[in-house]
Amino acid sequence: MKSAILLFIREFLSEIVAGKLFFKSIDLKERNTIIILKNYFIEKKMILMMGEYDQIGKLCARVVAGKSSFLVDRPPLHLLNDTLTYIGFDLKGAMTGAKSILGKKKKCPIIVNPYLGISLFPNKSPQKVDCIWFNPEHIIKTTAMGNETKVELSNGYSIRVDSKSSTFNDKIQTAKHLIRLSMERGNHPGPVTFYLEPKEGRQLSKEKTGKYNFSSLEDEQK
């Protein structure tokens, strides 16, 4: 009996060492000493994000914000959509809008939060796990390294990406151009229009045809 108990304890401890037993809390999960947040909304201090599989093979998002690095228990594209949905938008709309503004079709940057002026751009196809989403505001300097680019970040670290510097620098400028154009259009959505104060007592009413008399407004402007 004693030997059976000792065997069970040894097997239990080996399971823990092997990372096969996971302990969960309400707000986060601890998987083999790796802290994984359940959710996260992209903020201005976020530097980059990419896909990474956790200890059980689930695709998560590796986020670097300031000098912190952590996993979020959501795939990168889902995390982007979570952030956009929270403020009343969605990822599909953000991608469609960016393509419309820039006239591009592939690997387009997107606006993640128009209120905070946050845009991100992918260094390769967003469908690839190793795609890195960069915040252009946190890129300090880029240096050509053959067919790669050394990217110096605002937190004092650097990362090498599989992209020529000319191509990568173009992505940075495109992302900045997108957010600048979007903010300009948001503040000035169309041609300047002059509105005249209507006379008091006038009313928009239905005519016999069933239409409202909007033509009376046109008469006011003559």
Explain how this protein is built.
The longest helix is centred in the C-terminal third of the chain and has 23 residues, at 165-187. The protein has helices at 2-17, 76-86, 91-102, 165-187, 215-220; strands at residues 23-24, 28-31, 34-37, 46-53, 59-65, 68-72, 110-113, 118-122, 132-134, 139-145, 148-153, 158-161. With 222 residues, the chain is α+β, with helices and mostly antiparallel strands. The strands form two sheets. Strands 1-2-3-6-5-4-9-8-7 form a nine-stranded mixed sheet, sandwiched between helices. The protein starts with a helix and ends with a helix. Helices cover 31% and strands 27% of the residues. It contains five helices and twelve strands.
Break the fold down into its secondary structure elements and pairings.
Blueprint: H1 2-17, E1 23-24, E2 28-31, E3 34-37, E4 46-53, E5 59-65, E6 68-72, H2 76-86, H3 91-102, E7 110-113, E8 118-122, E9 132-134, E10 139-145, E11 148-153, E12 158-161, H4 165-187, H5 215-220
Parallel strand pairs: 3-6
Antiparallel strand pairs: 1-2, 2-3, 4-5, 4-9, 5-6, 7-8, 8-9, 10-11, 11-12
* DSSP, total strands: 12
Helix content: 25-40%
Question: Any idea what the radius of gyration is?
Answer: 26 Å
H-E string: HEEEEEEHHEEEEEEHH
Unreliable segments of 5+ consecutive residues: 5-9, 12-33
Number of helices: 5
Give the mean pLDDT. Answer: 82
* Strand content range: 25-35%
Q: How is the biggest beta sheet arranged?
A: 9 strands, mixed
Task: Give the CA-based shape.
Answer: elongated
Structural class: alpha+beta
Strand order of the largest sheet: 1-2-3-6-5-4-9-8-7
